[in-house]
Structures are given as structure tokens and as C-alpha cells.
């Protein structure tokens, strides 16, 4: 749900008719959410891009009531809980001093995924909050309860100030991809095949992101296709301080790019930038320890056109089967769809580069596997490992151990 929009994502949770949509309109200072006295107006999580005065551009996610019922209501509640994995901050809205198991479940899930949150007692113009409830929440959950109303004489200032204090700085900070490896006027070589998976008339997103980062750091990018690499590397002066290749031609690039020039892949860059890089480092070597009958989960989190020789659905399964020499089975899950079965059924998880999603989303997506002790890796790092060039791919991002 968080998708390619990198602005802070704020989830609004609470029971039906507690005023979640009214709160969104109040913060946006315009009618962007449907408001009704009929409980259950919001049925599925809905993303709304907006500007909150005093905070800036955000994505607010309006969720269905956590007290819905029936078969359809149960599915809506499940969608609301799944939204927790995609957000940077949450607001739990209660009303009429109703606080029970639905709210406690939301809090447990927010804490599980380490999402900071704020609890608001809404409609205070109708029913002020019970001080005993406020004390209990402080004692049991260390929660400060803000008494509030979107209708009667309440200012947004207090709410916005609390939000600014609690939204983590990491939600706003965009880390550089390669800026710590290069300096102004350095030359960076970008090896970019134009194959069946490349969108017509433009570059794929990871290449564009790296290009922008190189330019933002005042370095000089040089592009070439893989069939131009041999001649270019012989004649390019000065030498590039860093070469970055598409994973699919990493083996060729490894042969042609001199060993003294650091070489990595776009996917490895993204893995370090917003993936679970340390767990990828630990998990990738497990590719050489697979057994017959092992089931591999491939998480293709970025939506894209599926080609006949798709890297996640075709090439990685083929390469891993050949590399391991084992009879393996593969499950490909696209987007944020539910992972089939239990996570412990899988011997390994291979995550895509994540060019269109956020680090928070990737970490949350992989958390069940990491918690269960299941090895995780990334497309580019897995490809490099299977082709015997893993050490070179990750070397630019690993600090050498001090000599004792």
C-alpha cells in the first residue's frame, strides 16, 4: 500500500463511526474523505495524498472500522491490520470512552511492527473522556490520551504538535544510494542492458534512481549497454571509481571490469539502501545449503509488466535449480498479496530490489521470516552469489575489519 510514494504514511485506526474520516478532513482542512453518520462508510483502506499544515506532504490511510462484523467485515478488519505493515505513524481514534479488545489488538500489532502512534479520544464535545480510562491507558500501555473534537472549538495545533513529535525522523529522511562511495566529479559507470524487461522508451526505475543519486552528489554518470562495455572500459579516461550493473549481466561485467574498480549491481544498491541488508548478508549463503523438496518464496513486491523471461518468475528459479542441483519448488507472491501457507513452510525467502516500495514496507514484509529464523536474500545478491561474484557485489558496502 505504501507503494512508490515516499512521503510519511500515517494510518488512522478505530471503530466504525468514531470519526476517523472527519479527522482526516480536519487535518487536511478540506473534504477529502467521505463522512457519514452511518457506521461502516469506509470499507477498505484508502490512501489520500495531502498536505497537513504544520507537517507537510503526507499519505493518510483511512481504514475500515476495527469492530466490523460478518464475513465481509472480518475481511475488512484484516485489511486494516495489514495496513500497519506499510505505515510510519498511526493514530488510534476512540470515542465515547470505548476501549477494549479491538483497540488492544491494534496496539499490540503497532508495537510488534514498531510503529509509533498517538491515541485520540474524539467527539469530546459530545462525551469528554473518562479520567479513569486515561489513567488506565497510561498505566497499562504508557499511552497519553488526547481529548479532541473535530467539530466544536478544538484547534488542530495541539494535535499537529504531538504528531510532529511522534512521527519518526526516518519517515522524512531519504538516504543516499551511493553518495557515501563517491565524491564530486568522480565518474560512475552504469551498465544497463535494454532487454525484454526494459520499458519501451525509458529506463527501469532502479537505474533512474541511481542516476539521480549520482547527479545529486555532483558525480558524472556514464551509461552503456553490456555489448559496449568491453570497448568502453578500455578507452574510458579517467577510470570510473565505481561500476554498477544490472544483475542479469553481472557475470559479464565481472569479467570485463578490472578487479581494482569496485563493482556492484543496481539491486544490491537498493538492498543496502532500503532492504534488510544485514539479514541479506547473513541469509544469502544459505543458497548453497538447500535440499531436495525445499520450497522457496519469491517476493516480487514491485508491480511491473511480466515478461516471458521474467527475472523473478523464470530466471531466478532456473538459475537456483541449476546452481543447487536440487529439486526445488517456488512460490511467487506479487505486490503485497498474502503469503500462502505458513512462513515456516519455506526454506528461504528471496525479496525483489524494492524500487517502488519503501524500506519500512520491505522490513515489515520480511519480518515474519526473520523472526522465524528463515534465511532471506535479495534478487541481486542471490544472482551474484549463484554466479560466484557475491563477494565483489557486496564489498563496496562492507567495512573491512581492522587489522589486529
Query: Which CATH architecture of the largest domain is right?
Result: 3-Layer(aba) Sandwich
The outline comes out as elongated
- What is the ordering of alpha helices and beta strands? EHEEHEHEHEHEHEHEHEHHEHEEHEHH
Amount of helix: 25-40%
The overall pLDDT, averaged over residues, is 85
Count the E strands. Answer: 14
The separation of the N and C termini measures 48 Å
If you compute it from the alpha carbons, what radius of gyration comes out, rounded to the nearest whole angstrom? Answer: 24 Å
Q: Show unreliable segments.
A: 1-5, 33-43
CATH topology of the largest domain: Rossmann fold
Number of helices: 14
Q: What is the highest CATH level, the class of the largest domain? A: Alpha Beta
Q: What is the H level of CATH, i.e. the homologous superfamily of the largest domain?
A: P-loop containing nucleotide triphosphate hydrolases
* Category by helix and strand content: alpha/beta
User: What summary fits the major beta sheet?
Assistant: 6 strands, mixed
* Count of discrete structural domains: 3
Percent strand equals: 15-25%
Strand arrangement across the biggest beta sheet? 2-3-1-4-5-6
Descriptive notes:
This protein has 404 residues and is of the alpha/beta class. It has 3 domains: 9-171, 3-Layer(aba) Sandwich (Rossmann fold); 187-269, Rossmann fold (3-Layer(aba) Sandwich), CATH 3.40.50.11420; 276-390, Rossmann fold (3-Layer(aba) Sandwich), CATH 3.40.50. Helices cover 34% and strands 18% of the residues. The chain has 14 helices and 14 strands. Strands 2-3-1-4-5-6 form a 6-stranded mixed β-sheet, sandwiched between helices. A 4-stranded parallel β-sheet has the order 8-7-9-10, with helices on both faces. Strand 4 (89-95), helix 3 and strand 5 (117-122) form a beta-alpha-beta unit. Helix 11 (311-324) packs parallel to helix 13. It starts with 8 loop residues before the first strand and ends in a 10-residue tail after the last helix. Residues 1-5 and 33-43 have low confidence and may be disordered.
Amino acid at each position: 500500500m505504501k507503494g512508490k510514494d515516499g512521503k510519511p504514511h500515517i494510518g488512522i485506526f478505530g471503530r466504525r463511526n468514531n470519526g476517523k474520516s472527519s479527522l482526516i478532513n480536519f487535518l487536511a482542512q478540506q473534504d477529502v474523505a467521505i463522512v457519514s453518520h452511518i457506521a461502516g462508510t469506509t470499507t477498505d483502506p484508502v490512501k489520500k495524498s495531502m498536505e497537513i499544515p504544520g507537517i507537510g506532504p503526507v499519505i493518510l490511510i483511512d481504514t475500515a472500522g476495527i469492530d466490523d462484523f460478518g464475513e465481509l467485515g472480518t475481511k475488512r478488519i484484516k485489511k486494516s491490520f495489514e495496513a500497519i505493515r506499510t505505515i510510519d505513524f498511526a493514530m488510534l481514534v476512540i470515542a465515547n470512552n470505548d476501549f477494549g479488545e479491538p483497540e488492544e489488538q491494534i496496539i499490540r500489532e503497532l508495537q510488534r511492527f514498531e510503529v509509533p502512534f498517538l491515541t485520540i479520544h474524539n467527539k469530546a464535545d459530545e462525551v469528554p473522556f473518562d479520567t479513569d480510562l486515561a489513567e488506565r491507558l497510561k498505566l497499562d500501555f504508557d499511552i497519553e490520551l488526547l481529548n479532541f473534537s473535530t467539530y466544536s472549538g478544538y484547534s488542530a495545533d495541539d494535535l499537529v504538535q504531538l504528531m510532529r513529535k511522534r512521527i519518526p525522523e526516518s519517515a522524512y529522511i531519504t538516504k543516499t544510494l551511493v553518495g557515501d562511495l563517491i565524491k564530486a566529479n568522480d565518474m560512475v559507470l552504469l551498465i544497463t542492458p535494454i532487454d525484454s524487461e526494459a520499458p519501451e522508451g525509458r529506463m527501469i526505475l532502479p537505474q533512474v534512481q541511481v542516476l539521480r543519486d549520482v547527479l545529486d552528489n555532483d558525480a558524472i554518470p556514464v551509461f552503456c549497454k553490456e555489448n559496449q562495455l568491453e570497448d568502453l572500459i578500455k578507452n574510458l579516461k579517467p577510470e570510473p571509481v565505481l561500476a554498477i550493473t544490472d544483475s542479469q549481466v553481472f557475470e559479464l561485467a565481472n569479467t570485463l571490469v578490472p578487479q581494482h574498480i569496485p563493482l556492484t549491481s543496481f539491486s544490491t544498491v537498493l538492498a543496502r539502501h532500503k532492504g534488510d541488508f544485514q539479514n541479506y548478508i547473513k541469509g544469502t549463503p544459505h543458497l548453497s545449503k538447500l535440499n531436495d523438496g525445499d520450497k522457496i518464496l519469491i517476493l516480487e513486491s514491485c508491480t511491473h509488466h511480466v515478461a516471458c523471461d521474467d527475472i523473478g518468475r523464470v530466471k531466478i528459479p532456473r538459475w537456483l535449480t541449476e546452481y543447487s542441483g536440487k529439486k526445488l519448488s517456488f512460490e511467487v507472491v506479487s505486490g503485497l498479496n498474502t503469503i500462502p501457507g505458513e512462513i515456516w513452510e519455506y526454506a528461504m525467502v528471496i525479496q525483489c530490489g524494492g524500487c517502488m516500495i519503501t524500506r519500512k514496507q520491505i522490513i515489515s514484509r520480511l519480518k515474519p521470516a526473520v523472526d522465524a529464523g528463515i534465511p532471506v536474500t535479495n534478487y541481486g545478491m542471490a544472482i551474484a552469489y549463484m554466479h560466484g561474484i557475491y563477494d565483489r557485489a557486496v564489498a563496496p558496502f562492507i567495512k573491512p575489519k581492522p587489522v589486529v
